[in-house]
Each structure stands twice: as structure tokens, then as C-alpha cells.
Amino acid sequence: MFAFFLSSGLFLGWSLGANDAANVFGTAVGSRMIRFATAAVLCSIFVIIGSVVSGAGASETLGKLGSITAIAGAFVVAFAAAVSVYLMTKAGYPVSTSQAIVGAIIGWNLFSGSLTDYDSLTTIVATWVVCPFLSAIFAVSFYKLFVPVIKTCSVSMFRLDALTRYLLILAGIFGSYSLGANNIANVMGVFVPVAPLSDISLFGMVSLNAAQQLFFIGGVAIAVGVFTYSKRVMMTVGEGIFELSPVAALVVVWAHSMVLFLFASQGLKGLLVSHGLPSLPLVPVSSSQAIVGAVIGIGLLRGGRSIRWRLVGGIASGWVATPVIAAGVSFMLLFFVQNVFQQETYRPVTYRVTAENVDRIGRAGMDTGYLAPLVGEEFSRAVDFRDALSRSKGEPVTAGETATVMHYTEVDELEITEEKIAELDTTWITAEQREAVEALTGRVFIHTWRFDEALARLSPQWRLSEHDRDFNRALTNKRQYMYRIFRRHDTASH
């Protein structure tokens, strides 16, 4: 059943490959410097590598925007985004899969009554504005640096042509890696919270967690899209907006690739933060906006007279329409799938305020005075609970406060039984961790945080580390896996 629901993610991956490969190799193919077949092979290989190795950074921010809680809901969200991208691809416009998936997630939030993290949404939308301008600045800067070097070195036309071709290939490889690293979150991010997968080890050397397994599958889907349907959009980007010289094409690809890399690299962000320097957020930015911004930057540098502004206007209108279309399609399909096919598109969540969890929230360092009037009340929709919190406090609660309160009041019953313990993946869960779980046999936990704390008391392997981020990320994945195994199904039914 999971494989069927994952098909919409594969469709979205195919759509991304069909559309966004143009942003990596479109200028090279359009300027006749690289054959389409060569571009397709290189793009396919390195987009998969980038997806698996560096795809986690941007997916975390997208997950904060809205965490899909049911596999059927993830299917619909990905399908709605894919339909939006496909329609624009059919028209020959390079659109943003980032905008499509964000719009589809917001549609799911509206349908399910879930909260939209406006901090994350603001960050993502801000990158949509910054991305083309930043790419244009990079393109102009690279061009002004590159051309004088060529003139100084007095390179012959034939040698320059050969050198440019090789540099375009390298730029395309870097761009493909960056595309996979940054945009795989758009393809598979909504499936990560609900995927029934555990870590696997390949040949005892390489370990892939659930997200990386999904990213690999999504990367393959992108590669198929590159081969089967990307040539038309490549030509739109490569020669439709502004006719590029081979050198300008090289500069455009490098500028686009740098922007995607900056918004996807966890290593670079960590390095900057460790030295007290500002860093860009890790978000899935628009590859299409990056490449179009770079092309326009070069066009403006040359006076702007040859830029086809009507085509640029059409592309820009597609950027505006895409998230709106995706949100509308997502909302309507969710209603249809849930009411006609009787599929659970979201897991209903109850928030129960008790003296116990108010005390736990207080021990987390929060002021809980405004929670006292709500003790004993239950809420079935996150938006209703947030509004009640704001009314009780007398002012809007912050996103951080809301997240903390909801974490400790969410009713998510877990029942620890021998039958369910037998289902645990022993290649992923250590012997000591399994022993701690077995010690809780017969227990029922109303809140997941109580289960987490019970395990942490029994074994240090269930405790978060103060310094090891990789360990904490793996532990979080294991906790989510445990919730899926031990969750009482009757608490998540309509």
C-alpha cells in the first residue's frame, strides 16, 4: 500500500526532472555547447548523489511548514504539486516545484485544521524574492571576473570553445548535485514523517536512514524525468529568454548552482555559524527562479534590449499561479479522497490540557499561568487550540510557545505489547534499546513525551545528547518509528 501512495511522489520527481533539468543544462544545450543526451546522463547521476548525500537540510525547514500525518494525505499533497508542475511544463514554462509543494502543504493545513508555521513560511517566501536577485548578482559578478581573464590570457577561439565546453560540464555536474540536494525535499519531504521504513546498511559500509532511502527513490524519479521530457523546457531557458553566448551560458549555470548550494549545504551553514558569521536558511529554493534571475542579470549587463520581457512576464505569472493552483488542487483532492474513497488523509489529533502536562510545560521553562483556565478542556483542531491559548493569554502566543504546549498536550496513545515489540527492526534498534522497550511491556502512554522520558530513564541510549547532532537526529527518527509501531489505531481513526 505504501508503494502505491508513494507513486505521487515519483510523479512529482518525474515532473521536477522534466522541468528543472533545464535550469542546470538548459543554457549549455540551448547554446549548442553540449548535446542533450550528454546533459541528461550527467544530470541524472549527480542529482541522485546530491539527493542522498545532502538532501536532509532543506527538508527539515519544509517539514516545519506542515507535517503530514497520514500516508494518503502525503499522496494527495505530492500529487497536487505534481499536477501543477506538469501543467506549467506542458506550457513550456520553467516553474518552481518549491512553490508547488509549499502551496499543496498549505492546502493540506487548511483542510486538516493544522497550523501553518508562519515563521517557516515567511522564510521560504523571502527566498523566492531573494533568490532571483542573488542569482543575477552572482551572474553579473562572475561575468565581469571571467571575461577580463579571457582577454588577458589571449585564448584562441577554438581553445576557448573547448575550455568553455568542459567548464559547462563541470558547472552542470555541480548544478545537478545542488539541484538534488536542495529540491529533493520538494519531492519526498512530505513522505518522511509517515514512511514505514527503518535504517538499512549496504554491504556493512554505508547506512541509509528512512529519509535517505526516500531521497534515493526520488532522485531516480527525477532522472527519469530528465530523460523523457526535459528537452522542451531546456530550449525555453537556453534560448527563449535571451540569446546567450557560450561564456554567458557558463556563467549563468555557475550562478544558479551557487545559489542552490548555499541554501542546501549543512556543512557550510555549520562552518559559518561556528565562526559567528551570518548564514542563509536551509530551504528548498526555486531552481527556476535562480536560473531565470541569472539569465536576466546577463541580459541587463548587456543593456537589456534583447531580453524578451513578455516571456519573462509569462514565467513570473507562472510563479505566482503555481502555489495558488497547488493549494486549490490539494484541498479539493483531499476532500474527494477522504469522502469518496474513505481514506484517512490526516490523523485526527486531540489536545488535552491536564494539571500534569501543565506542570511538565512549566519544568520546560515556560510561564504556564495562562494555561490554568484551560485545564480539563480538550481540542480536536490545532487552530482552535491555538486560538484558545491566545484568548486565555490575552495576546497572540508565539510559534515557539504553541509548539511546546501542543507537544506536551497532544493525546497520542501508545500501547507497549509483546506482539508489537516482536515487529521491531533489530538491525536498527540496539539490544540495549530493545531491552528498555521490553521493560515497558503492558504499559500504555497517553502522551509520546511520557514514553520518551520512560525510555530515557531506563537507558542512556534513549537520551538526547548535548553535543552529538547526528546521534540526536538518528534518535528522533527511532522515536518516530516507535510511535508508528506502538500507536493505538483507535486513537487515530475517524
Question: Please, could you describe this protein's structure?
Answer:
The chain has helices at 2-30, 36-54, 56-65, 71-90, 97-112, 118-153, 157-188, 210-229, 231-240, 246-262, 266-274, 287-301, 309-340, 355-363, 382-393, 399-409, 418-421, 431-438, 448-458, 469-486; strands spanning 200-202, 206-208, 350-352, 378-379, 410-411, 414-415, 444-445. The protein starts with a helix and ends in an 8-residue tail after the last helix. The model has no long low-confidence stretch (mean pLDDT 85). The protein folds into three domains: 2-340, no CATH class; 350-411, no CATH class; 414-492, no CATH class. The longest helix is centred in the N-terminal third of the chain and has 36 residues, at 118-153. By secondary structure, it is mostly helical. It has 20 helices and seven strands. It has a three-stranded antiparallel sheet with strand order 4-3-5. The protein has a two-stranded antiparallel ribbon with strand order 1-2. The protein has a two-stranded antiparallel ribbon with strand order 6-7.
- Total individual domains: 3
Distance between the termini: 20 Å
Could you give a short account of the major beta sheet? 3 strands, antiparallel
Beta fraction: under 5%
The strand line-up of the biggest sheet is 4-3-5
**How many distinct beta strands?**
7
Helix-strand sequence: HHHHHHHEEHHHHHHEHEHHEEHHEHH
Low-confidence stretches: none
Structural class: mainly alpha
Layout of strands and helices, then pairs:
Blueprint: H1 2-30, H2 36-54, H3 56-65, H4 71-90, H5 97-112, H6 118-153, H7 157-188, E1 200-202, E2 206-208, H8 210-229, H9 231-240, H10 246-262, H11 266-274, H12 287-301, H13 309-340, E3 350-352, H14 355-363, E4 378-379, H15 382-393, H16 399-409, E5 410-411, E6 414-415, H17 418-421, H18 431-438, E7 444-445, H19 448-458, H20 469-486
Antiparallel strand pairs: 1-2, 3-4, 3-5, 6-7
Helix pairs in contact: 1-2, 1-4, 1-7, 1-8, 1-9, 1-10, 1-12, 2-7, 2-8, 3-6, 3-7, 4-5, 4-13, 5-13, 6-10, 6-12, 7-8, 7-10, 10-12, 14-16
